[in-house]
Amino acid sequence: MEAEFIARMQAEQRELERKLKAVRDLLAAYGAEPAAEPNATIVETSVVEIASANAVAEKKPAASPRPKVGMDGFGDYGRTIIAECMRAMLLTPQMPIKTRRLVEILESKNVGITGDNKINAVGALLSRSIDITSHGKAGWTVNDPHTALEIVGKYARPINEASAADAMDASETALHAQEEGDHRNEPSFLRVAGAATP
Q1: DSSP H or E stretch at residue 57
Q2: Residue environment code for 96-117, b if the CB has 16+ CB neighbours within 10 A, otherwise e
Q3: Among 48, 89, 98, 170, which residue is least crowded by beta carbons within 10 Å?
Q4: Coil/strand/helix, residue 186
Q5: Residue 194 — left, alpha, or beta (φ > 0 → left; ψ -120 to 50 → alpha)?
Q6: Could you give the CA distance from residue 4 to residue 10 in angstroms, rounded to a whole number?
């Protein structure tokens, strides 16, 4: 057993010496002199440095974020969540609206959210949508109210007729005011989404 341990340590020593030679060759290629000849202290330090360098090299690069997509880039589940969130954004005067609040609204409407962390699940879907803008911790807004209304009409779950009529009346009033240039009574989601106000 001791012979096996010694053999492994000797193999490790040879590997370290090979790496040290490679470092010295690299320094020489740049015209630099290597540090003092190895002694116990330098070898010990080199082992730590090499081990640290190997650990850094073994780390995987950070994954790039998934690209933003339109509604066709989501499945039925994702389209429903995004459309319901857009409905909430259009109907809630306090914009932007936080993810936590959107989850509360979805749950109150019995919209199922998958995953252990519902806030992260909803946030991940919203962040991939080209039709929604993130305002960091402040929350989310729709990019274009007209597009959002179309998406809500196409993908959101049906709501009772009285609520639908109220929602359409509020949206049409806001959009008419925007088209006429009257921004005084404009809902805040239009201002946050980038509409010009006098």
Answers
A1: helix 40-58
A2: bbbbebbbebbeeeebebeeee
A3: 48
A4: coil
A5: left
A6: 10
Lowest-confidence region among 81-85, 91-95, 150-154, 170-174:
170-174
Q: How many CB atoms lie within 10 A of CB 127?
A: 15
What one-character DSSP code corresponds to residue 73?
G
Q: Where are the beta strands (DSSP E) in the chain?
A: 132-134, 140-142
Mean pLDDT for all residues in the chain: 77
Of 150, 130, 148, nearest to 190 by C-alpha is: 148
Beta carbons of 130 and 69 less than 8 angstroms apart: yes
Q: How confident is the model at residue 23 (pLDDT cuts 50, 70, 90)?
A: confident
- Tokens for 103, please give them: 């989850």
Band of the pLDDT at 33, cuts 50, 70, 90?
confident
Residues contacting residue 103 through CB under 8 Å, at least 6 positions apart: 113, 118, 119, 122
Residue 3: pLDDT band (50, 70, 90) is confident
SS3 (DSSP) at 97:
strand
111: region left, alpha or beta (phi > 0 left; psi from -120 to 50 alpha): beta
Its pTM stands at 0.51
